[in-house]
Amino acid sequence: MSARAEDPPPPGIAGRAAERSALRGLLARTPLVTVTGPANVGKSTLVRTVLEEAAQDAGRPGGRPDGLPGGGFVRVGCREDVDAAGVTAALNRAAGLPYDTPPQTLAVHCARRGLTVLLDDCDPVAGACGWLVRQLLRVGVGGAFRPEAGTGAVLAAGLRIVVTARQPLGLGAERVFTVRPLPVAWGGGTTLFALSAPFDMPRGAGDGPLPASYDVAVRAPAAALGACSPADRLVWARLSVLPGDFDGWLAGCVAGRSDVSAQEAAAALGRLLSASVLALVRVGGGVRQAPDAAPGARPSPGLVPADTSVATTAAPPFRSPHPPRYRLPAAARAVGLAHLRAAGEEAATLRAFRTACAALAAEAQIAWQGSDRRVAVHLAETERHHLHAALTLPPQDAEDALTALDIAVSLWFRWAACGRRDEGRAHLARLLRQSRGDTAVRARALWLAGWLAAQDHAHRTAESLLDRAGRAAARHADPDTLARVAHARGLLALRRADPRTAAAHLRRAAEHTYQDAWYGPGPAHSQVLLAVALAAQEPREASAPAPPPDLASVAATGATTTGRGTVTPPSAHGEARGSPFSGTHRGLHLS
Predict the structure, then answer these.
(1) How far is Cα 499 from Cα 534, in angstroms, rounded to an integer?
(2) Pairing verdict, β 182-186 and 190-194
(3) Count of C-beta atoms within a 10 Å radius of residue 157
(4) What is the spatial distance between Cα 228 and Cα 305, in angstroms, rounded to a whole number?
(5) In what side-by-side order are the strands of the sheet with 325-327?
(6) 28 close to 164: Cβ distance less than 8 angstroms
(7) Residue 101 C-alpha from the chain's centroid
(8) Can you tell me the distance from the alpha carbon of 139 to that of 456, in angstroms, rounded to the nearest whole number?
C-alpha cells in the first residue's frame, strides 16, 4: 500500500452517469461504502471522479493530503508496495501525519478537516483494511469533530470511508455498491462487456479539454473501429495490454508478430493516430545515433506521425532520447482488450510485452554503467508503468516467470542506488516464489535480495539469502555472482564490526575480473569497503597511499577517472557510511 498523492486527477468517464449519481447519494448518507466489481471494471476511476466532483462542488480542490481545511480526500493504493502491517502507517503518511499515529487520532484528523478516506484496491490486504476501518469507525459513526465534546466525539455527516475491492469487507456498517462492466458494440453489432484499463488517460494540458482522440474513442468506439482495416484492428487490440504511454519501439515489439511486421505496426500507429484512436502525448525530436551508444541498445522504428508515408525500414541502432510517445485512451483500450481476449491472443501478447520489458530493463542497466547514469534513470522512470506491470502481472508459465525475475535483476540499480530498496525487495520476494527452478538467473536474484537486505540491516535474512545464492552460483559456475556474494558478505562483516573477515571477503570481490560487468556493483565498490576494513584493522597503515586501481576493471563498474584519481560510485560511499568504524567518515571519494 502506498500513498499516491502525486497521481494526476482521474479523467472524465462516460457511460456511468447513473452510477455516479447513485454513488454520490450513497456517500452523502453512509459512513462506509465498499465499491465492488470485477478486476479493471473501473471502480477506482469511478470513485475518484465522484470524490473530485464532490470536492469541486464544495469549492475545494480534492485529493489534497496536506491536512489543510477542506482537504477533500486522502487515497492509499493497496496493491503492491507494503504488507498488511504497514496499512495504518501508509494512510497516516497520506494524511500528512506521523507514521505511528493511532487510528483514533487519524479518524479525528480526517473528520475535523472533512477528509474522505479512500482505501483503493484493498484485496491483497483486505484483513488489515477491515481492522483499520473498524478502528476508524469506533471513534463514531461518521462525523465532524466537536472540540467541546472531547477527543473522541464525532458527530454525524463527517468522516467518510470508501473502499474499492473485488469483494466486500464484511463489516456491519458497510454498504456495498457494485460496478458492472459496460456493454460495448464491437464491429457488426456483437455486444461485449468491456473492462476499463488499469491506467486511465489524464486530462489535457493544464485544465483544458481532453484530446479529441479520447472523446471519439469514448463516445463512438464502434465508429472509430469501422474506419480501421483488419491489420489496424489487430494492432489496436495488441496495444491494449500496454498500461501507460509507449513509443514506436515498444509498440512494434508488442504488436509485431509473424502476421504483422514491425514496419506494418509502425504504419498502423500513424493510421490509428489519424483516426483519433491513439493520442500523441509527446512529439519526438527525430532519431539520431548517440555518440556513446551502449552495446545492445534497442532501435527505433523512426516513425514520423505527421507523415505516415515515410519509410521506416532504415532504423538506426540507437533511439532518440525523446521519441514520440502515444497513449491508447481508456475506452479504446477496453475495446481492444475485449477483442484480444475474444481472439484468444491475450496470453501471447502479454508474453511479448514482458519480453520487451526485459529488453528495456537490460538497456537501462547497460546505460547505468555508461558515462551518464541519468540516461538509465530517465529510461526507468519513463517506462515505470510498463516495468511495474511486467513485474506484477501473473506469469504464463515457468519461462515467463523467469523473464520477470530477470527484469527485477536488471533493475538492480533502481532498487539499490535510487532509493527503492523496499520496492525491489518486495518484487524479488514474490518473483522468487513464482520462479523456483534452479537457474543462474535465480542465483543472481538471490544475491540481489540478500544484498538489499544487508543494506537494510536485515542481517539474518541477508545471511540466509546469500548462502542460497552462493550455493546456486557454484552449481552454475557463475564466478561473477560468487564475487558479488563475497562483497555482500563483506558488508555484513563490517556491520558486525569484524574487519578481518570483511577484508577477506572484500579483497576477493575487489580482485575479481568480471565477465558480465553490466549487472551489480563492480570492483570499485569493493575497493572502497576494503579500504574501510583495512583502516579499522590497521589504523597506522591506513594513512599510507593505496596502490593505483586497475583502471580497466574500474571502468567496467561505472566508476570514472579524472586527473586527480578514480571517482568511485556514490552507492559505495553509502555502504561505507553504514559501517560501525570511524574510518567510514573520512574522505573516501577519491581512491
Answers:
(1) 7
(2) antiparallel
(3) 13
(4) 17
(5) 246-247, 325-327, 279-282
(6) no
(7) 27
(8) 36
C-alpha cell at 484: 558479488
For every one of its 591 residues, what pLDDT tens digit does the chain have, with 9 covering 90 and above?
Answer: 333 333 444 444 556 788 888 888 888 888 899 999 887 778 888 888 888 887 776 654 444 343 333 458 888 887 655 666 788 888 888 888 888 888 888 888 888 888 889 998 888 888 888 888 888 887 654 443 344 433 333 333 468 899 998 888 888 778 889 888 765 444 444 444 444 433 333 333 333 333 443 444 444 554 555 567 888 889 999 999 999 899 999 999 999 888 888 788 888 998 888 887 888 887 654 433 333 333 334 443 333 333 333 333 333 344 445 688 999 888 888 888 888 888 889 999 999 999 999 999 999 999 998 888 899 999 999 999 999 999 999 998 999 999 999 999 999 999 999 989 999 999 999 999 999 889 999 999 999 999 999 988 899 999 999 999 999 999 999 999 999 999 999 999 998 889 999 999 999 999 999 888 888 887 888 899 889 889 887 654 444 444 444 433 433 344 433 333 334 444 444 554 444 433 333 233 222
Which residues, other chains included, contact 69 with Cβ-Cβ below 8 Å and sequence gap of 6+? Answer: 113, 114
**Phi and psi dihedrals of 347, rounded to 5?**
-60, -45
Identify the bridge partners of residue 499 per DSSP, sorted by sequence position. none
The amino acid occupying position 169 is: L
User: Dihedral through CA 32, CA 37, CA 42, CA 43, nearest 10?
Assistant: 10
CA distance 367 to 359: 12
Residue 282's Cβ-count burial label (10 Å; 0-12, 13-18, 19+) is middle
Tell me the three state secondary structure of residue 74.
strand
Which one-letter amino acid corresponds to residue 585? H
Question: How many CA atoms lie within 13 Å of 84's alpha carbon, on the beta-carbon side?
Answer: 10
Distance CA 114, CA 150 (A): 18
**What type of residue is 75?**
R
569-to-2, 18, 526, 545, 582 alpha-carbon distances in Å = 30, 57, 11, 20, 21
Q: Which of 136, 142, 119 lies closest to 34, judged by CA? A: 119
Tell me whether residue 576 is exposed, middle or buried, using C-beta atoms within 10 angstroms of its C-beta: 0 to 12, 13 to 18, 19 or more.
buried
CA distance 407 to 250: 16
Strand partners of residue 192: 184
Whole-angstrom Cα distance, residue 108 to residue 112?
6
What is the bridge-based pairing of β-strands 565-567 and 560-562?
antiparallel
Reported residue count of the chain is 591
**Amino acid letter for position 489:** R
Helix, coil or strand: residue 76: strand
Beta bridge partners of 182: 194
Q: What is the dihedral of CA 213, 216, 221, 225, to 10 degrees?
A: -60
Contact predicate 532/576, CB 8 Å: yes
- Would the pTM count as exceeding 0.85? no
Helix (H) or strand (E) holding 57: helix 43-57
Reference 451, options 571, 306, 337, 286; nearest CA is 571
